[in-house]
Amino acid sequence: MAIVGITALVPPEIVYASGNIPVDINNFVPRSGVVPRDKLCAWTALWRDLTLMGRIKLDKLVVVAGGDCNNALVDGEKIELSGVDTHYFTYPFDGSAKIMRHEIDKLVEFLGGELDESVFNRVTELKSAATAVDSERVSMHINSQDAFEIMVSGSDLAGSLEDYRKMIDSVVKKRVDCDFRLALLGTPPIYDGFHEFLDSLGLHIVYDEMPYEFLRLRGDTVKSISESYADYSFARNITHRIKLLKSELKQRGVEGIIHFHQFACHHKLEDPILREALCAEGYPFITIEADLPSKTPQQTRLRIEAFKERLGDL
Amino acid sequence: MTLFGFDVGSRAAKCFNSDTGEVEIVDSHDWRSILPDGHEIISTGYFRKEVPNIFNLTEITAAIYGVSYLLDQEVDVILDIGGQDTKVIDTTTNEFRMNDRCSAGTGTFLEFIAGYLGLTLAEMGRLHFQAKCAAEINSTCSVFAHTEAISRLVEGHSKAEVVKGIHLAFARKIAQMMPPDSYTIALIGGTAKNPGVVDAFSNVLEAKIIVPENPQIVNAVGAVQYFMQKGL
Fold first, then answer.
1. Rounded distance, CA A271 to CA A291, Å?
2. I want to staple A296 with a disulfide (CB 3.0 to 4.6 A). Which of A34, A191, A267, B188 is the partner?
3. 3 state SS of B81
4. Is A287 part of the contact surface with chain B (CB cutoff 8 Å)?
């Protein structure tokens, strides 16, 4: 049983079914307290440095090298050069299930070649339970921070199926009051406690775009897993992603959008496209760009508070 | 009881007496020295929550209410150039944009260049109009623009021409943040007191630039106006 680091979304059900443990190495970044040596994106630079420093212990590494995170490739190679057994995983831009199946087959081979497919159902059951938490959050019974913690942990299911079950079971349900229902699109915030800050302002996140993808994609066979992950919206073309966004925003009764992106991330270039497409649907839109991890900076707090005031004046 | 608008930004603190119209402005670090005793304060600016207040609001909302109160005409966009950031507020859509984690297009950028040239900001404004031409400055990164300014001086351009080039580069940087169809623009914040900057905006933006009589106190005035108009 090996500890397998993943740099972005890699089907965790495949890693568990191969008898290994997935660990999303991004989860070490927000509270790392480390300043990267050289960087474009702080996420990739920090998981790179933390791994090279020995603060993240890995037996193997799977780098998402195509689709989603474009900065991960070279930082992943630096880890490979340090001696970590590394594999490069790529999402199909066109949503081809055939290409996705090929990528998953290569991943299975890297992970040892054997799969216990009974694990798929256990993972699906947990993802369903976490999706129920998301629904409770949408219906105002769980706060944004608690729901976000569970959903974002869906990338590796907390590194233990048992622990993830306990995490879901321990969530506190309590009626949430808020002033506005918002969506958080883009990269999950690198600022520790960002959702908590929003909760404190009466801004309730009812849609966390990327963490929701961690739960939405699933399957009970390699074939259905391939078909599902081929639809990973962050790796697909922007038109496909916008179609999904419009549907989710409408269903969830969203009143405003925060687009969160990271300095030097290619997703930043999508900002004007998303802004134009979603403003045209009537959604007030604010963009927040982050760089190094920290508590939410004052300048960002000011923007969010001003956004709330503007929503109130509409 | 008199209402006071109190705006403490990154560089200056402004106190506005809504009864008399009197204004006090000091360095932001000294904001306590102009804090009115025993009066009701509506605060805004980065330090708004540090200031004892009966209500506080962000400078973005304060700017909208301040401009609306002080100008006798509607504008499409409010451009608030502060020490630490620049805000572009589209009054037609209620949206706003701010520069991100970079001093380019902020008052700090001009201060940095003024410091290198050994000038005050007021001198920058005067020199702008003495230039026979504008030195070509393409970069808006403070550090790179500094390097370019040195190169232009070495090439024989006068300080005045470099200053004018800097003002134009500054305006071009901010122009990138402007929404389309910005025909009338209210320019506020301390930087708007620099006539060279106003001239540069007039050249770069195909729009009517309107500067309130005292552009630095608009947000302090707007804070009081918001409080009064909302009946808080």
1. 16
2. A191
3. strand
4. yes
Q: Which residues of chain A have pLDDT under 70?
A: none
- Name the band, by pLDDT with cuts 50, 70 and 90, for residue B37: confident
Same domain assignment for residues A147 and A287: yes
- Is B61 within 8 Å of A310 when comparing Cβ atoms? yes
Give the number of domains in chain A: 2
Is residue B113 included in any domain, yes or no? Answer: yes
**CATH classification at residue A272:** 3.40.50.11900
**Domain end call among B155, B174, B193:** B174
Q: Which of B57, B100, B102, B106 to mutate to test the interface with A (most CBs of A within 10 A)?
A: B100
Q: Is the ipTM of this complex over 0.85?
A: no
Residue A245 corresponds to which amino acid? L
> Which two tokens mark B65?
């209410």
- Ordered DSSP codes for A122-179: HHHHHHHHHHHHHHHHHTTSS-HHHHHHHHHGGGTGGG-HHHHHHHHHTPPP-----S
Distance from CA of A310 to the nearest CA of B (A): 6
Q: Mind listing the pLDDT tens digit for each residue in A136-151?
A: 999 999 999 999 999 9
In a domain, A121, yes or no: no
Residue B156 in any domain: the answer is: yes
B51 domain residue, yes or no: yes
Q: Which residues of A touch B57 (CB under 8 A)?
A: 309
Q: Which residue of B has its CA nearest to A261?
A: B100
| CB-based contact A314 B100, cutoff 8 Å | no
Query: Residue B48, class by beta-carbon neighbours within 10 Å (0-12 exposed, 13-18 middle, 19+ buried)?
Result: buried
pLDDT tens for residues A250-259?
999 999 999 9
**Alpha-carbon distances, residue A240 vs A93, A235, A271, A279 (angstroms):** 10, 10, 15, 17
A284–B60 C-beta distance less than 8 A: no
